[in-house]
């Protein structure tokens, strides 16, 4: 490491950041090598090496020096951290989170010499809780240092699983869970790295639809399996739509998070009434299914002023590409890559230095449409190019 | 086709015809559908609009085609739980080959061949290794789905679409508001009905399913018949899979999950007996149609989503009961009549 340059956070806000040649081999530009901010409470900034003054001599400020790095590395002492990662289903979304984690793990390996023993597991059946609990218990038995859990399981019963892990010496972290649904003091997980599904997802989608339609129109909603996420996003959507009495929800059906079912549901609803202004799919697969239904029925997708808006939530590479191609109108990108990176950051500083992360850590989210798709698409593409661990 | 013995044309026509009809597998469900559709459309007039009816047909085929295969397997005394996984894998094979630049027809054929091969494997495990049908195909369901997950690491296949694939997937209309898969299904229905009714194969399937030992003694080779049934089921599921890959424009590793239960439900609603020896392709059609109509009605009536599972399950049960009642009635009527 030790290649130090001035770093600026994307937003211009300087934070404690370190800039290493983490991926110097793969780096095509200086900015490709990215590291998250240090310290568990900071947002994972996307640092880039560039002179902020624009052409002037770089005022070399490196966030963290060799003395500090050495202390961390000594404490790590080449240790291997054994981490288990389990989501409710295998999917492109969880793959993006995992790649965010890979990026951060590789960066810390380069900096501090820490090694990672990473295990991934997801239930075969979408949201099979039993399967997932068995996995976690097996990891706990095998003395994992930490487990990263995203589950559709009931809050109270998962607390028992977490308690057993705690007793056995495995630290539990959650990711991508709508932590806002529960009293955080009741959550035994050390931290929940995710985003607020109410205000950072459902609400944003509702606002986007309302703004684009001028507060007036007919909306169809297509929901995933009943559970935490749909409950939370529903809340947010309702908050947003409450301000616009002329926006009417005229159909609300289930797509169970899969394209197949959402496509049929959207077709059925559009055949019933083709004069629909927007379709909200609770995840991108379903929103993409709805976009396909619109095209198959010869209806007009949103062109910026007219047509049917389709908006989802996830921030998948395939979703961004479909936005670029003008199929899906928009999506709420819920920071999959940042969730992965932040999870590793949180785990590392907690395991090695016992630093206490916030109970609920929310990453940034964003409504992405054709006008701003390039940056998130490039970011996700980069993360997916990081080799697996 | 029907298994219940055909009555010779009789003098008191209409009553006889009705009795004979009620005895056909799937007749009860057909009556249910005939009553259900107008009743529902009273609440949602859009149900009977041409576009919606075409939409129902366009959606129905993806359940109907694998149900044809399931019906064959059930007639021959088996059950195929691997159908959903085969749909996923065959779609995955077609999509991935298309993605690396293979021409569409070859990619489709490879996908279908993969399904046929899995069906063959099912048949071998069941007939040669004597593993019970349920267990063998349950295991295959897990293995094939697992292969798809390992192969994709959970990330869907995409960016493989070819202009013609939109047509095959039913995303473009070909005749009025109907799509190509509807005609594929129709062709399969006619061909299979012909084969089962007009050739020795049908008799062999039924004989094997009713009583494999008796079939064997009369010179039929039940193992071969069963093998054929599973190959047919794998092939038909794969035909569905490669078309579904075109329809969804992406193959998620979970694609087709749950189809096995829907096809079993459709086959049984259509009068197939899980004890073997009995089943009907036209019944399968009505069964698949009923499932699709229910889903369509739920969407159009905008029924609250938490009720969906209860309603679908309840209607399946009710529909099957009507079918069984119709059959019992027809049997009583036949028994009471002098021959």
**H/E series of chain A, N to C?**
EEHEHEHEHEEHEHEHEHEHEHEEH
Largest interface, and how many residues on either side? Answer: A-B, 37 and 40 residues
Q: Terminal Cα separation of chain B, in Å?
A: 23 Å
Alpha-carbon Rg of chain B, integer = 20 Å
Which regions of chain B contain 5 or more consecutive residues with pLDDT less than 50?
1-7
- Quote the beta fraction of chain B: under 5%
CATH architecture of chain B: Orthogonal Bundle
Element layout with pairings:
The complex is a heterodimer of chains A (389) and B (339).
Chain A: E1 7-8, E2 48-49, H1 66-76, E3 80-86, H2 92-112, E4 115-121, H3 129-141, E5 146-149, H4 155-168, E6 171-175, E7 192-194, H5 198-212, E8 217-223, H6 228-242, E9 247-254, H7 259-272, E10 278-281, H8 284-296, E11 309-314, H9 317-324, E12 330-333, H10 336-353, E13 360-362, E14 366-369, H11 374-385
Helix pairs in contact in A: 2-10, 2-11, 3-4, 5-6, 7-8, 9-11
Chain B: H1 13-23, H2 27-43, H3 50-75, H4 83-99, H5 104-127, H6 133-152, H7 163-168, E1 173-175, E2 178-179, H8 180-198, H9 200-210, H10 212-217, H11 222-248, H12 259-269, H13 281-300, H14 308-335
Structure description:
The complex is a heterodimer of chains A (389) and B (339). In chain A, 40% of the residues lie in helices and 17% in strands. In chain A, helix 3 (129-141) packs parallel to helix 4 (155-168), helix 5 packs across helix 6 and helix 9 packs antiparallel against helix 11. In chain A, 53% of the residues are buried. Chain A contains eleven helices and 14 strands. Mean pLDDT of chain A is 85; it is low at 1-54. Chain A has helices at residues 66-76, 92-112, 129-141, 155-168, 198-212, 228-242, 259-272, 284-296, 317-324, 336-353, 374-385, and strands spanning 7-8, 48-49, 80-86, 115-121, 146-149, 171-175, 192-194, 217-223, 247-254, 278-281, 309-314, 330-333, 360-362, 366-369. Chain A is of the alpha/beta class. In chain A, helix 2 links the parallel strand 3 and strand 4. Chain A has two domains: 74-195 and 337-363 and 379-385, Rossmann fold (3-Layer(aba) Sandwich); 198-333, Response regulator (Rossmann fold). Chain B is an all-alpha fold and 339 residues long. Chain B has one domain: ABC transporter involved in vitamin B12 uptake, BtuC (Orthogonal Bundle). Chain B has helices spanning 13-23, 27-43, 50-75, 83-99, 104-127, 133-152, 163-168, 180-198, 200-210, 212-217, 222-248, 259-269, 281-300, 308-335; strands at 173-175, 178-179. Chain B has a two-stranded antiparallel sheet. The model of chain B is unreliable at 1-7 (pLDDT under 50). The A-B interface holds A 89-92, 94-95, 122, 124-126, 223, 226, 250-254, 258-260, 263-265, 267-269, 271-273, 285, 288-289, 292, 295-296, 318, 321 and B 44, 46, 49, 51-52, 55, 59, 142, 145-146, 149, 153-156, 158-159, 170-172, 244, 247-250, 252-255, 257, 295-296, 298-300, 302, 304-306, 308.
């Amino acid at each position: 490491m030790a290649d130090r340059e001035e770093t600026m956070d994307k937003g211009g806000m300087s934070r404690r950041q370190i800039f290493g040649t983490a991926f110097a081999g793969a780096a095509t530009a200086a900015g490709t090598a990215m590291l998250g901010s240090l310290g568990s409470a900071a947002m994972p900034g996307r640092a880039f090496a560039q002179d902020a003054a624009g052409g002037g001599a770089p005022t070399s400020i490196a966030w963290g020096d060799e003395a500090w790095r050495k202390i961390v590395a000594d404490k790590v002492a080449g240790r291997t951290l054994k981490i288990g990662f389990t989501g409710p289903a295998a999917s492109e979304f969880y793959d993006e989170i995992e790649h965010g984690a890979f990026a951060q793990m590789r960066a810390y390996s380069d900096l501090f010499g820490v090694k990672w023993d990473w295990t991934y597991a997801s239930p075969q059946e979408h949201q099979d809780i039993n399967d997932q609990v068995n996995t976690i218990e097996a990891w706990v038995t095998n003395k994992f240092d930490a487990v990263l859990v995203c589950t559709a399981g009931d809050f109270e019963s998962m607390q028992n699983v977490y308690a057993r892990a705690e007793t056995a010496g495995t630290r539990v972290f959650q990711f991508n869970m709508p932590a806002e649904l529960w009293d955080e003091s009741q959550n035994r997980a050390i931290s929940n790295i995710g985003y607020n599904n109410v205000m950072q997802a459902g609400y944003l989608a509702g606002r986007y639809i309302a703004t684009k339609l001028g507060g007036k129109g007919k909306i169809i909603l297509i929901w995933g399996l009943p559970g935490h996420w749909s409950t939370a996003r529903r809340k947010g959507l309702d908050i947003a739509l409450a301000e616009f009495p002329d926006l009417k929800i005229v159909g609300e059906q289930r797509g169970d998070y899969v394209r197949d079912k959402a496509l049929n549901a959207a077709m059925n609803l559009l055949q019933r009434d083709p004069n629909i202004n927007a379709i909200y799919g609770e995840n991108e697969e379903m929103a993409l299914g709805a976009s396909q239904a619109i095209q198959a029925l010869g209806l007009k997708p949103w062109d910026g002023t007219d047509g049917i808006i389709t908006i989802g939530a996830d921030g998948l590479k395939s979703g961004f590409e479909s936005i670029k191609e003008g199929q899906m109108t928009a999506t709420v990108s819920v920071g999959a890559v940042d969730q992965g990176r932040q999870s590793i950051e949180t785990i590392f500083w907690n395991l090695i230095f016992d630093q206490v992360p916030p109970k609920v850590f929310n990453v940034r989210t964003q409504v992405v449409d054709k006008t701003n798709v390039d940056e998130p698409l490039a970011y996700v593409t980069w993360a997916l190019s990081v080799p697996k661990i | 086709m029907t298994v219940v013995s055909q009555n010779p044309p009789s003098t008191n026509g209409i009553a006889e015809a009705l009795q004979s009809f009620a005895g056909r597998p799937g007749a009860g469900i057909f009556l249910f559908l005939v009553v259900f559709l107008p009743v529902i459309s009273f609440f949602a007039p859009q149900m009977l609009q041409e576009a919606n009816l075409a939409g129902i047909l366009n959606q129905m085929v993806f359940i109907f085609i694998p149900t044809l295969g399931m019906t064959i397997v059930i007639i021959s005394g088996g059950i195929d739980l691997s159908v959903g996984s085969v749909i996923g894998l065959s779609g995955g094979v077609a999509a991935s080959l298309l993605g690396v630049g293979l021409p569409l027809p070859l990619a489709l054929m490879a996908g279908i061949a993969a399904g046929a091969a899995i069906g063959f494997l099912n048949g071998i495990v069941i007939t040669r290794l004597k593993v019970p049908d349920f267990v063998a195909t349950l295991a295959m369901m897990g293995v094939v789905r697992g292969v798809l997950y390992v192969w994709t690491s959970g990330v869907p296949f995409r960016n493989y679409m070819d202009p013609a694939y939109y047509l095959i997937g039913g995303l473009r209309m070909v005749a009025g508001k109907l799509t190509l898969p509807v005609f594929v299904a129709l062709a399969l229905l006619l061909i299979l009905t012909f084969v089962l009714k007009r050739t020795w194969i049908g008799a062999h399937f039924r004989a094997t399913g009713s009583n494999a030992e008796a079939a064997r003694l009369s010179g039929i080779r039940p193992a071969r018949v069963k093998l054929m049934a599973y190959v047919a089921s794998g092939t038909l599921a794969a035909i569905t899979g490669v078309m579904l890959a075109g329809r969804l424009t992406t193959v998620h590793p979970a694609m087709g999950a749950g189809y096995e239960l829907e096809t079993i439900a459709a086959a049984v609603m259509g009068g197939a007996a899980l004890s073997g020896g009995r089943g009907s392709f036209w019944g399968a059609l009505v069964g698949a149609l009923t499932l699709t109509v229910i889903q369509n009605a739920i969407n159009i009536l905008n029924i609250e989503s938490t009720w969906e599972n209860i309603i679908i399950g309840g209607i399946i049960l009710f529909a099957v009961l009507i079918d069984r009642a119709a059959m019992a009635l027809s049997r009583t009527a036949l028994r009471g009549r002098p021959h």
